[in-house]
Amino acid sequence: MEDENNTFDPDLIHAIFKLLWTRRALERERNDVADALDCEVGAGTSKKNRQTSANGKAIKLSCELLRIFITEAVQRAATIAEAEGASKIEATHLERILPQLLLDF
Amino acid sequence: MEKAMDMDMEMEREEEEEEETESVSDVLRDRFRLSTISIAEAEAKRNGMEISEPIVACISDLAFKYAEQLAKDLELFAQHASRKIVKMEDVILSAHRNEHLATSLRSLCDDLKAKEPQSERKRKKTPRKENKATTSVVHIPDN
């Protein structure tokens, strides 16, 4: 039950992804407009710029990926904290595990 | 002169637009942070540890950055496959550098696929062909 409570809401992740994709699509559009002004052959590119969307299962999988990222960060930091005999995870512990964590993801 | 004014107006309007998306993303970021906090604290508890709040916030920011990067990757992967829709294989591909991660994502992907045909309450019209194609691409040793 705990597992079910503690994961990302797929709708939230979907909304975040959508926002980023919309932003990128807009950027591309702007660049294309600039290009079109330059060379006047911008026709027919609108199709290329249709926005990306995602399959529901793909979003679920991304949620899991992000969840794993967080649990890994906490778990690794906890291991370091334990080795140092601390009972609370502090900045130094996170600092120690950060380089490898970022390489792993 | 008039042209310059037009430009100014345009700039302003664009700024406004940007602000709007900015505030939307703030809401999303906050919701994201709340989820992260609950995940991180539960995980710390499981390890019999406490975790200080700034660290959770830091991990949350990292995760958000990672999500942004992930979104970019997924879009590029889908585009590379000349698709407009991100599929599970794209997500798996984004984790390809870490074998363990890729393997666990693959097994989860299979779980999701196995669940799909039984619970067709969403009735999303995903053609069978697609499913077959992905299973033939992804080889997973059952372990």
UniProtKB/TrEMBL annotation, chain A:
Keyword Metal-binding: no
Subcellular location: Nucleus
Keywords, in A-Z order: DNA damage, DNA repair, DNA-binding, Nucleus
Gene Ontology biological process: DNA repair; kinetochore assembly; replication fork processing; resolution of meiotic recombination intermediates
Highest taxon above the source species: Eukaryota
Cited Pfam families: CENP-X (PF09415)
One of the record's GO cellular component terms: FANCM-MHF complex
GO molecular function: DNA binding
Similarity comment: Belongs to the CENP-X/MHF2 family.
Full protein name: Protein mhf2 like protein
Organism: Quercus suber
Species lineage: Eukaryota, Viridiplantae, Streptophyta, Embryophyta, Tracheophyta
Encoding gene (name): MHF2_0
UniProtKB/TrEMBL annotation, chain B:
The organism's place on the tree of life at top rank: Eukaryota
Record-annotated membrane-spanning stretches: none
GO terms classed as biological process: DNA repair; replication fork processing; resolution of meiotic recombination intermediates
Biased composition, class Acidic residues, residue ranges: 7-23
UniProt keyword annotations, A-Z: DNA damage, DNA repair, DNA-binding
Region described as Disordered: spans on this chain: 1-27, 110-143
Gene Ontology terms for molecular function: chromatin binding; DNA binding; protein heterodimerization activity
GO CC terms, sorted: FANCM-MHF complex
Ranges of compositional bias, category Basic and acidic residues: 110-120
Family: Belongs to the TAF9 family. CENP-S/MHF1 subfamily.
Record's protein name: Protein mhf1 like protein
This protein's encoding gene: MHF1
